[in-house]
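Researcher: Batch entry, complex prediction.
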Amino acid sequence: MKDDPPETTRRNLLWKSVVAGTGLGLLATALAWARSLSPKVLYEPPTKRRIGPPGRFPEGRTFLSEERIFVLRQGNAYRAISAVCTHLGCTVGEADGGGYHCPCHGSFFSETGTNEAGPAPRPLPWLPLTVTGGALVVDLEGEVGPDHRLEVAVEGKPQ
Amino acid sequence: MPRTPREASEAVVQNFALHAFPARITKRALSWLATGWLGTASMHLFVILTVTGLVLMFLYVPSVDRAYDSVKDLQYVVAFGSWIRGTHRIAAHLMVVAVVLHLVRVFLTGAYKREGPPGSFRPMNWWLGLALLLLTFGLSFTGYLLPWDQLAYWAVTVGTQIAAAAPLIGEDLRGLLLGGTTVGQSALIRFYVLHCFVLPMATIFLVSWHFWRIRKDGGLAVADRVGDAVKARAKALPPKPGKTYTLMGSTEGGTVQVETPVALMEEESESSVPHVVRRGFVVFLVTFALCSLLGLLLHAPLEEAANPAVTPNPAKAPWYFLWLQELVSILTFRIGDTVIDGTLIGGILLPGLIVTVLAAWPFLDRSPAAAAGVWFHRTRRRQNVIFLVLLLAAVVLTIIGTFFRGPYWGWVWPWDPSSPVHTFF
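Model: Structure tokens for the complex:
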């Protein structure tokens, strides 16, 4: 051979295309298969829940274990606050003398939900309450200000 | 002589049994005190875990509805079920201990150092060891969820929330682990598959590589000095064409087997069969007896079935993560109204930093070659002291987290009736 072959021959280019094509194909396959690991549908409990007629709640704080919320009633005014600690997701309990206490790392939230002590980075969120078909509905994903109240005229005395 | 590389490699493959160990091994590497045989013990614990785990797999049902009951059956109905489960649990705890102690031994003897025999690269095995340490934690943590009791549910809820604190990828990582937004059926099956297949397979692969690297690196670092002494006295033999190292083409640049003819130093070495095999078997028997006895005596706990509504108070991570949970709690403080969240620092950044610094350590350690494979070499005094102080701090934090933390993560003295000490002893 007198002179060197040029850098890109037809064969060379074809070979590179085959390698690149195979590589891209394998990569695409891997990505598509990995995508199956993030679900498109979650069979989890709904985030908007009916929690029963307003009359079922006594005056003061009521803990709902299914929803992990506290419902607070003052006469005809209703509020709901999340019981999921904003630190690592443990369920907070009622503290003596008002406020909320988290068993995991000792975070303390005041009655308004403000994080006052411990590692919790944010206040407990107040959740929007609505009435649908005579039942209170709480939106576990929503958030309202601490002054938000739902006024419902309830027949009869609080239980 | 092999005529082709294929014949050469076949010769090696067919002789695998003989090639797991070198023909002769230095007395120094055989010594109990030089290494404590902790790596061997770790591997034996993995074998015990595989065998007991296989039995448990026949009896366990990875479904939210059945998991707790099947473990309860195992514990109270299946013949000797509580013994097998107890052995599996104790072996898992001991494996965490053995692997950590193995790392401590390698660090204190400087066995990870780059300055090994010609052709060796010991940092590789140090990295493989770090990966195996992380796999051990992963295996232990994924196994924690499977009983689906309160302990399991809340440890994993807290653990995956810590993963979510990782910057950028945190939420995705948590979603990938849980297969959803809460700890439920998708999380259980994912942890099950990771625990029973993915992580054990990765461990088997890395352990094999780890063992092979020991031979590739010219044996244990604790025996390096023996080789030096012999080399000073004897003249190296030229590579023999029929030997494995020549067949594998591994002699370019030389290895300790080639440059230090161990066969020459009869008085410094023993033949591997039966000496290594016998000691390995003794280590296995001791490890197995310990797991089996402790598994019989200490009952594996099974709390109430998982209940998302009620968080146990206090909710604790597995004991080997309690130093981190303690740090998460300590590192969280407030300046005015801003809360410095210890989760990111204690749960993500600090462990990441520890692993990174350990991985880079063979390149940060500037001690001379003579310090490789020597317990507490004087040139490595400062780093050994710092290492031990940090280790001690982690141990103290673990003890505090385990025994001195009561409701709301508050301080509890061991003599207080509410102290968790009373549930341990």
